[in-house]
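Notes from hallway chat w/ T.B., transcribed later so I don't forget. T.B. wanted the structure written out for a chain they're using in a teaching module, and asked if we could keep both sequence and structure tokens in one place. Agreed to drop them here.
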Amino acid sequence: MIDPTKNVLDLVDAESRYRDKLRDADAKYTDDMRNADKQRRNDLSEQRDKLEERMERQRERYEERITRMQTDEVKANSDLLSKQLDRMLTTFGDRLAELERFRYEVGGRSSGISSVWVVVVGAIGALAAIVGVINIAINISTA
């Protein structure tokens, strides 16, 4: 057996220390890359959460705006129908008053009253139908 010289032993020892440093450097590099990847995933997750929050706030504002627009539209339609109904009722009232007066003057009180009742019942039925249509329109638009 040949006894290695001091020089060979020093070279083997230096190579061993060099490998140890390489292993340590590789382990540090792997840890650093793992930590950087973890940080990148955390940053992406935070950005995604912030984006989802902004989108949720935008959706809420959009829904509020749509609701406000629908409410305004229903109110405008309701006001329009109310005005039309008022005009119709005024017209019916005036015509009914004229008819009552005419029937009372021409045909006597008993025959005029029975005709007036037919007109009154007809007008009430028409009014009920109009109110029902308005109510349905309001319910549909608010649904």
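Follow-up for T.B.: The radius of gyration is 46 Å. Might be a good example for the class.
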